[in-house]
Amino acid sequence: MKKMKQFIATLLLLTFVLTSAVGCGSANSTVKTTNNAGNSKNEKNSDISSDLKTIRLGVLSASSLAWFAQIGDEQGIYKKHGLNVVTSEFAAGIDSVDQLVSGQLDVGFVADFAGINRIGATSDKTDLRFFSSFSKSGAWTLYVNPDEIKTLSDLKGKGVIVSLGTFIEYLNGRTFEKAGITKDDVELLPIEAPTDVIALAKSGAASAFWTTGETAKKLADDYGWVPFATQADIGVNTNTMYMANNDYITNNNDTIKSFIEANDEIFEYVKNNKDEAVKFIASKNNAEESYISLSIDSATYSTTLDKEVYDGLDEVNAWCFKNGFYKNKFNLADFINTDALAEIDPNKASWK
Fold first, then answer.
1. 2-23+139-234 shares its CATH topology with 36-137+238-349
2. Dihedral pair phi/psi, residue 189, rounded to 5°
């Protein structure tokens, strides 16, 4: 039965990856690139000023990262801070890190696990550094097939979907600990794109997946899956972090400062003008206002790297090393550069 499930899962994954490559792209592809300069609320179609500093920014598709960047453009916040922000959308944070490493981006985003795991695997040579948080969230939910899963221990022997290298892998690991099992006790089903999740649910090969948003809704509406556990149930919060290469941060300190300050202003705008922001985002992205509102409310937003954020990152670091994600221990402090953050407000960079 296990080999048959694996065969079905592999066949479906190949089919969906091949058929969706043009329309949706894979988890490793850029979805869309937008040049935001000169496209603010009051200066549509104006020329890009030579005085603006360009930042090539990676954001997560259909998320607050992408939406808040749109707000920064529409409200002229980036331009106010002297920035021309060129955004590229990705299906997963680790993809933006790949682009950082290859020099295609200046600033990327990543969930804590994915960033820590990448550093751990390349700690002897990487130039990557965390320089600020973007958000903290516990909004993801474990959805399960209720015919298969009644308790966490029922995951044993079942198909569990995983997106390798992303924080879903971390959520799975912590879930297995809570259930008293290991990853070897389940049938891990790697995915490349969101469509793969639906294929695996439809085939019956999968019984559980950590998800949120539209994928969660589709699993519930079309396949009868139900929410089973929250991040709070397994004691996990997720910090979404901004990363850049240390060389870029060092040589563009003022630009990083302006970017952080622009983020702070965007956060304040959304907080004080929630209804207006939701209407704009929903209209621009052809999405339901209720979905946008709930998504925004599912996290707290701040540019900081204080002791709480640092400890959260280091907890993930310790867990990853303990569970064999990388062989060599590394000192997290060596992969943080908060010089720009500290110049804005030392309390924002109080991790030391």
1. yes
2. -120, 95
